[in-house]
């Protein structure tokens, strides 16, 4: 008999769960506070320009990748060609190009550090071997940390003898690996890795979990994609599938209260509407969850979830820019990192993505839309005076760095607006504009992650704060776990 499932929040995690459940025959209602789908992977329009709100680089679309599996299950494949040149990484002393083909990529890196060739090649051999072993667990996709006998059994069933070689690395960081290969002091090489990791793991090589870092450094080689229009297409496809399979999708519905009543869940939105369900999947910011529950229910939440709900993460400043391409000496590449050498945050490192010429979903012919984002600490924005100063300083820092590498960039700008933490809070509902999830350090990764099981029967959580972590792949995987547990079906 179909179950009534309420999903709160139409980010990638919630949409994944809702679409999978509706396709499998459940009765699904999805409530979204915004008028847009996708959360941090959503979009907005300004005049004739469309801007991705946050996430821009498509991952997990290769055969067997998380998104590919979901879209295949939904009967909505998204055929795209992977990028051979994934991104350009501009650093003070070197400019690297991340290449899809592993061997060519390592050859390219070695050219910058010929004195460390043997060490670098041995490092990448280990990284790629480790990532390959970890990826064998992506098929069964066991949930971590296991919270029930069934989840422990699923984990045990997924383990093979080859996984024994991962055990010594569970409590190691990537920094430990770099030290073993004699690369701990090769600062420019390490800084390049830090630039990749801060964008995917929210932390650098010194503290990031080795096993997750290996996958993060390798996954670009599995397939990185430019998605015409932007990653909001993921959200639209799943929203369409949800409705095609009988689900209800209601926008501009902000849930303000969750309660239990005679074995069912009751949600109340800001308009006073109530929704009854057998189970709830919560994809809104976890910082909001305790306040939606009665004190008695909130006290039942698992300790890691409660701790996470009171922990700050990164904020960001994002610039949304449209340029007249005719005023540039060359059209901008789709993806580029720029690192000034002044650290991994506060404009010292930022990610820049541009629409491809001919992507008319994002900009008219002759124009490109660009998003530029940097990590920032919340305390830089905690007063009106500091907020104004940080927004001005970080914007200037990033624009100055771009101008240095793209002469005439400022003169080509026809539209510019700034997405500071308060704008992110309004757009996504995330308190203080927190984005990206928790840094994947040893204290918050793998068995120390926050489970999709809240600790309260019938209430599940997903999103970038939940195992396996940030990014659209991580959010989708957490949505899969939540959906599986809500109805005790494997689904994908």
Automatic annotation (TrEMBL):
Q: Which domain of life is it from?
A: Bacteria
Q: Which InterPro entries match?
A: Amino_oxidase, CrtISO-like, FAD/NAD-bd_sf
Amine oxidase domain span: 12-484
Q: Which SUPFAM superfamilies match?
A: FAD/NAD(P)-binding domain
Q: Name one Pfam family in it.
A: Amino_oxidase
| Name under which the protein is recorded | Phytoene desaturase family protein
Query: Which PANTHER family does UniProt cross-reference here?
Result: PROLYCOPENE ISOMERASE, CHLOROPLASTIC, PTHR46313
The organism encoding this protein is Planococcus chinensis
């Amino acid at each position: 008999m179909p179950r009534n499932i309420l999903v709160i929040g139409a980010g990638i995690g919630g949409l994944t769960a809702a679409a999978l459940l509706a396709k499998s025959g459940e009765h699904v209602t999805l409530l979204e506070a915004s008028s847009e789908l996708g959360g941090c992977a959503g979009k907005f329009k300004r005049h004739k320009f469309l801007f991705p709100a946050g996430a821009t680089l498509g991952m997990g679309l290769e055969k067997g990748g998380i998104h590919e599996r979901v879209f295949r299950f939904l009967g909505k494949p998204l055929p795209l060609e992977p990028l051979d040149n994934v991104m350009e990484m501009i650093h003070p002393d070197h400019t690297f190009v991340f290449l899809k083909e592993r061997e060519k990529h390592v050859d390219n890196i070695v050219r910058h550090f010929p004195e460390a060739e043997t060490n670098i090649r041995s490092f990448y051999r280990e990284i790629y071997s480790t990532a390959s072993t970890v990826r064998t667990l992506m098929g069964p996709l066991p949930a971590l940390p296991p919270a029930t006998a069934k989840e422990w059994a699923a984990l045990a069933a997924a383990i093979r003898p080859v996984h024994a070689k991962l055990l010594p690395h569970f409590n190691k960081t990537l920094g430990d690996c770099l030290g073993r290969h004699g690369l701990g002091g090769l600062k420019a090489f390490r800084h390049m890795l830090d630039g990749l990791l801060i964008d995917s793991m929210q932390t650098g090589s010194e503290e990031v979990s080795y096993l997750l870092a290996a996958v993060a450094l390798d996954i670009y080689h599995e397939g990185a994609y430019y998605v015409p229009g932007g990653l909001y297409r993921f959200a639209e496809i799943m929203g369409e599938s949800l409705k095609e399979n009988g689900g209800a999708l209601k926008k501009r519905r902000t849930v303000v209260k969750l309660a239990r009543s005679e074995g069912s869940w009751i949600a109340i939105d800001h308009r006073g509407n109530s929704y009854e369900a057998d189970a709830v999947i919560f994809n809104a910011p976890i910082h909001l969850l305790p306040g939606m529950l009665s004190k008695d229910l909130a006290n039942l939440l698992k300790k890691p979830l409660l701790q996470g709900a009171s922990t700050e993460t990164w904020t960001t400043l994002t610039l949304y820019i449209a340029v007249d391409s005719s005023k540039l000496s060359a059209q901008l590449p789709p993806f580029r990192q720029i690192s000034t050498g002044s650290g991994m945050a506060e404009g010292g490192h930022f990610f820049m993505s541009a629409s491809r010429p001919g992507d008319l979903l994002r900009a008219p012919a002759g124009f490109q839309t660009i998003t530029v984002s940097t990590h920032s600490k919340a305390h830089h924005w905690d007063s009106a005076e500091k907020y104004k100063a940080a927004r001005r300083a970080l914007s200037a820092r990033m624009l100055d760095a771009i101008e240095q590498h793209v002469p005439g960039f400022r003169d080509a700008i026809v539209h510019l607006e700034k997405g500071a933490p308060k704008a992110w809070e309004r757009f996504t509902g995330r308190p203080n504009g927190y984005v990206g999830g928790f840094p994947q350090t040893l204290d918050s990764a793998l068995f120390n992650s926050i489970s999709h099981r809240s600790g309260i029967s019938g209430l599940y959580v997903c999103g970038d704060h939940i195992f396996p972590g940030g990014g659209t792949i991580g959010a989708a995987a957490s949505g899969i776990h939540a959906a599986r547990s809500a109805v005790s079906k494997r689904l994908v």
